[in-house]
Amino acid sequence: MDKNDIKKQLGIEVVNKLVKSGMKIGLGTGSTAVHAIRWIKERKKLGELENLLVVPTSLQAEWECKNCDIPFKC
Predict the structure, then answer these.
(1) Cα–Cα nearest to 71, from 48, 32, 44, 39
(2) Measuring CA to CA, how many Å separate 56 from each of 24, 37, 53?
(3) In the prediction, which pLDDT does 74 show?
């Protein structure tokens, strides 16, 4: 497993263990955050996460949310 695989797994694990429907969450920056945002997108498509209030804390996170069609507040 390389460094990127570990970061991807960490992003997925954090979302799976900590993010629940109806939560307010801040999404940071960096490659691990990108993996987490992409996993949130997948869980939303499956109907497992709903009504999230997402606040990107960086331009990178805001851009990734836009690309993943995750509504957010600034």
Answers:
(1) 44
(2) 11, 10, 10
(3) 83
45's tokens? 């498509």
Amino acid present at 63 = W
Per DSSP, which regions of the chain are E strands? 24-27, 53-56
User: What totals of helices (H) and strands (E) does the chain contain, helices first?
Assistant: 3, 2
Tell the residue number behind the tokens 């957010």, with chain if given: 72
Whole-number Cα distances in Å, 55 to 3, 7, 42, 74: 27, 21, 18, 6
pLDDT (0 to 100) of residue 32: 96
Tokens 């996170």 map to which residue? Answer: 61
Mean pLDDT in order along the chain per 10 residues (74 residues): 95 98 95 97 97 95 96 90
